[in-house]
Specification:
The complex is a heterodimer. By secondary structure, chain A is an all-beta fold. Chain A contains no helices and eleven strands. In chain A, strand 5 and strand 6 (60-62) form a beta hairpin. The relative contact order of chain B is 0.33. The chains are: A mainly beta, B mainly beta.
């Protein structure tokens, strides 16, 4: 069974850093893109970014809202993806989810990850003083 | 403000049919990027419901169906059941300078009366 489990959430002060982990099992993590999303309390889903699979170069792509502050990496030897979050703000408070990216393809110089399945259960990050 | 536009809420009685629209633009759905749908039951993680506009993952009942035309897509649920009460999100990909990447609708809360 394919499973993703997030960890590392908690309470952090504004301006500090936090690293989340996403441990995958049931498949070879290097074969798929790994993606991070978040959902603020009572709000909708927001894409943070993804790291492509090895066949697609293992490169990253981020949402404009987090570019330069958040970094996604992966260690396929441990089947883990990471989300490094720096200079956290109160508005970064949310449940953070990781998910497997499916059906990658490249066209016109752009490599896309189409849909996301499955998702982990999420980890709560609260940024507060 | 979400790149894709969904109605905030829809409702229907058990057994009825409801549809949820997802409106995009020429930089996402209209550019040919597929639309995918997710169901989020209360206090749980999102679950893939429809992928590539019309396909259901294994285990998703055929009461759920998707369609896409032009710059819009729709999710239809027939034979509404109490367990369908959830939030539904559409997702696509955008190539505009300001929104490049994965984009979502704001979500639609389905209430089963």
């Amino acid at each position: 069974e394919v499973q993703l489990v997030e960890s590392g959430g908690g309470l952090v002060q504004p301006g500090r850093s936090l690293r989340l982990s996403c441990t995958v099992s049931g498949f070879t993590s290097g074969d798929y893109a790994l993606t991070w999303f978040r959902q603020a309390p009572g709000k909708g889903l927001e894409w943070i970014g993804f790291i492509r699979s090895k066949p697609y170069g293992g490169t990253t792509e981020y949402a404009a809202s987090v570019k330069g502050s958040f970094t996604i990496s992966r260690d396929d030897s441990k089947s883990i993806a990471y989300l490094q979050m720096n200079s956290l703000k109160i508005e970064d408070s949310a449940v953070y989810y990781c998910a497997t990216g499916r059906s990658e393809y490249c066209s016109g110089g752009r490599c896309v990850v189409r849909w996301f399945d499955p998702w982990g259960q999420g980890t709560l990050v609260t940024v507060s003083s | 403000q979400s790149v894709l536009t969904q109605p905030p809420s829809v409702s229907g009685a058990p057994g009825q049919r409801v549809t949820i629209s997802c409106t995009g633009s020429i930089s996402n759905i209209g550019a040919g990027y597929d639309v995918h749908w997710y169901q989020q039951l209360p206090r749980t993680a999102p679950k893939l419901l429809i992928y590539s506009n019309t396909y259901r993952p294994s285990g998703v009942p055929d009461r759920f169906s998707g369609s896409k035309s032009g710059t819009s897509a729709s999710l239809a649920i027939t034979g509404l059941q109490a367990e369908d009460e959830a939030d539904y999100y559409c997702q696509s990909y955008d190539t505009s300078l300001s929104n490049s990447g994965v984009v979502f609708g704001g979500g639609t809360k389905l209430t089963v009366l």
